[in-house]
Amino acid sequence: xxxxxxxxxxxxxxxxxxxxxxxxxxxxxxxxxxxxxxxxxxxxxxxxxxxxxxxxxxxxxxxxxxxxxxxxxxxxxxxxxxxxxxxxxxxxxxxxxxxxxxxxxxxxxxxxxxxxxxxxxxxxxxxxxxxxxxxxxxxxxxxxxxxxxxxxxxxxxxxxxxxxxxxxxxxxxxxxxxxxxxxxxxxxxxxxxxxxxxxxxxxxxxxxxxxxxxxxxxxx
Length: 220
Hints:
Blueprint: E1 4-13, E2 16-26, E3 31-35, H1 42-49, E4 55-62, E5 65-67, H2 72-77, E6 80-83, H3 95-102, H4 108-121, H5 125-128, H6 138-150, E7 156-160, H7 168-184, E8 188-192, H8 196-202, E9 205-208
């Protein structure tokens, strides 16, 4: 039984599907990168999974159970994470205070332990932990967003352009963090990514929406 599954789904507008008859499965330890040009349906796919756009047809399953989409309660109760393409703004709040407010897994000692783990995993985080979130640079915002996504150790993750704003010198660390998390937690991850260099470093299956809805084989 797959952790997450889409069966013959179509997403789009009225009589104009952006994605047609897509099927995929995700199990613990899997990373799937969805690639394609603008307007190919990449972000619409994740939005439909979270109920912000409607399925034109098809079925979605979580742990073998058919559901229409994930809700806000599912994100908390089922330990699912969704990292939006647009970075959140928190005027006047420090990174550490926001992470503390988001943490739901235990007491202060448990949070401090998780914060050390995140800081060691996401290298820029330790340098920005006491900064206000609204003044972060593009790469720092990406690190902060990834930390917010992983703070409660989700087992199913959806990432929309997670490495936007990260320069080439730091991409390797971000990719290693994500690969290690998915493998060791373990977790499953579906991510939207348009940068070919990032996809190649991830070494994962890809779904190129410009080429249809067939998954690529895993790279050797």
